[in-house]
Amino acid sequence: MELHIRLEGRKGLADQLYQQLRAGIDSGHLAAGTQLPPTRLLAEQLGISRKTVAEAYSRLTYDNLLSGVVGRGTFITPRRPLQPESAEPLPLAAADTLERWRQRATVLGRRTLDAPSRYDFVGGASSKAQFPYDQWRTCLQYALRRSQRHTERQFSSQGLPELREAIAHHIAFARGVHCAAADVLVCNGAQQALDLIARVLVEPGCKVAMEDPGYPPARQLFLALGAQLQAVPVDDQGLCVEQIEPGTRLIYVTPSHQFPLGMPMGEQRRQALLTRAAELGALIIEDDYDCEFRYQGPAAEALQRLDRHGLVAYVGTFSKTLLPELRLGYAILPAAVLQAACVAKHLTDWHSPSLQQWALARFIGEGHLNKHIRRCHEVYSARRERILARLDSDLAPWLRAVPASAGFHLSALAEPAVDVELLVNLARKVEVGLYSLAPFFSQAPVRPGLLLGFGAIELLDIDPALDRVRDTLQRLS
Questions:
Q1: Tell me: the pLDDT tens digits for 396-406?
Q2: Domain of residue 183, residue span
C-alpha cells in the first residue's frame, strides 16, 4: 500500500514530507501502530533520495511520533490524536424526515444494546452450540470453488437457481408449501422479504392490517412507508378476520405460531381469512418464521397451500433455523407480485451474497439442514418441557403459559397482581434476562406477561434461572 504523499517542486522536500506525515499522525488518519514503508521503498515511490526520507523519519522519531523496531521496521508511536476543530453543523432540509426514522427504532433493536444476562430468555435466538460448523465449512469451501470456476459477472436478483430449487423442495417437504423454484425470491433474511413486498404494494395512505399484538419491525416498516395501519386484535384462534376494514390492501399474519403469543390460527379462521382477502383483493403475507419446530399434534398446513387465487406471499428465514449471521431468507410470491419484487430487490442490493447462496444450496442438498432441524428439535423440546413444567408448578401462582405447539419461544400471561415491568428490571439485577409482552401491543389492551425464548438458553440453566424468577416474584408478593 502506498502512502498518499504529494510533494511540490524540488525544494524543502524533507520538510514537506515531515509536515504531511505529522499531519496524518496528528489527525489519526495514520493510526498508531501502523508500519511505514522502508526509507528505500518510499524514496522510490516518491522519486526522491533515500536521505531525504531518512531525514523526515529522523525528525518524527525525535518528536516521539515514530519508533524503530530492530528487524521489523518503523512504526507510528501510540498517542492521542489531536481533535480537529469542528464547525457547527448546519440543519438539513430533511431534518423532520430523519427524526421520524429515528423514532422508528424497534423494541427488538433496542434490546440488542443491553449487555446479555447470564441466563437469557431472549426470543428469536437459536442455539449456536447445535450448529454443524464442520459441515457448513465444507459447503463454504465448495462455494469458493464454484466462484473460482464461475465466469459470468451477473447474478440474478431472484437468487441462484440451485438455491431456489433447494428451498422449494425443502419447504414442500417440511411445511407443505406448494411452489416451484421459479416462485422463490432469495432475500437477506425475512425482514428484507417483508420490505420488498411492502415496497411494491404499499403507498402513502393505503390500508395495511396486522395482528395486535404483533411483530414490531413489520409494524414500523409499514408505518415508514406511509401506510394507514390497522391493528387487528387476536383471540385464541388468531387474527379476528371480521375486523379487517374495507379497502385493506395488505394483511400481515403469523398463522402457524402467532407472534408473540404463540397460538396457531384455527382451520376455519384460515379459510375465513382467505375469503376476506379475496373479497378485498388484498395480499396476505404469511410469516412462517420458526414453524419447522413442532412439538405436539399434526402440523397445520401453511396458509399458502390453501390459497387458490394467488393471494398469499409465504415468507421464511434460515437466520432462526441456522445462524443469525447467515442473513438469508426467502419469499414464495404469486406471479402478480414476483416480477415487481425482483425489480425492487435489484434496486436495493442487486442480489444476496452468491457465496452464501451456493453454500446453503449445498448444505440443504446434502441433507444437513434436515439433520440439523431434527437435532435442534430434540434439544428445544426438552427446554420447552422444562419451562412448561415450572410454569405448571412453583410459578403457577403468578404466570400461566399460552398454549403453543411450535417455535422456540412461548408466552406466559401474568396474574393481575404481578408488576411485569418491575419483575423484568429486578430479574436483570439477578442476571436473568426476561422480556415483557407489552412492547408488542399497539392499540389493543396490553395483556401483561412474558415472552420466554428457549432457543439460546441451555437446558441446565433453565432451573437456576427460574428459581431466581420465583424468588423475585415471592419478594414482590
A1: 999 999 988 88
A2: 132-367
- In this structure, are 301 and 432 located in the same domain? no
Total-model pTM: 0.84
What does each C-alpha distance from 376 to 329, 353, 389, 419 come to in angstroms?
19, 26, 20, 34
Pairing between strand 119-120 and 409-414?
unpaired
Is 375 among the domain residues? yes
Q: Kindly state whether residue 472 falls inside one of the protein's structural domains.
A: yes
Q: Give the DSSP H or E segment for 253.
A: strand 248-253
Angle at CA 229, nearest 5°, toward 228 and 235?
150
Residue 77 burial by Cβ neighbours in a 10 Å radius (0-12, 13-18, 19+): middle
| Number of Cα atoms under 13 Å in the Cβ half of residue 272 | 14
Lowest mean pLDDT among 62-66, 134-138, 298-302, 365-369: 298-302
334 lies in the same domain as 360: yes
Last-in-domain residue among 350, 367, 384: 367
Partners of 207 in the beta sheet? 228, 248
C-beta atoms surrounding 350 within 10 Å? 11
Number of structural domains the chain divides into? 3
CATH number for 137: 3.40.640.10
Contact at 8 Å (CB) between 251 and 277? Answer: yes
| Cell numbers at 416, concatenated | 393481575
Judge if 217 and 338 occupy the same domain: yes
Last residue of a domain, one of 367, 393, 419: 367
pLDDT of residue 100: 85
H-run or E-run covering 365 = helix 354-365
Containing 75, the helix (H) or strand (E) segment is strand 73-76
Are both 380 and 355 inside the same structural domain? no
Q: In this structure, is residue 171 part of a structural domain? A: yes
CB-based burial label for 242 (10 Å; 0-12, 13-18, 19+): exposed
Q: For 3-19, what is each residue's pLDDT tens digit?
A: 778 888 778 888 999 99
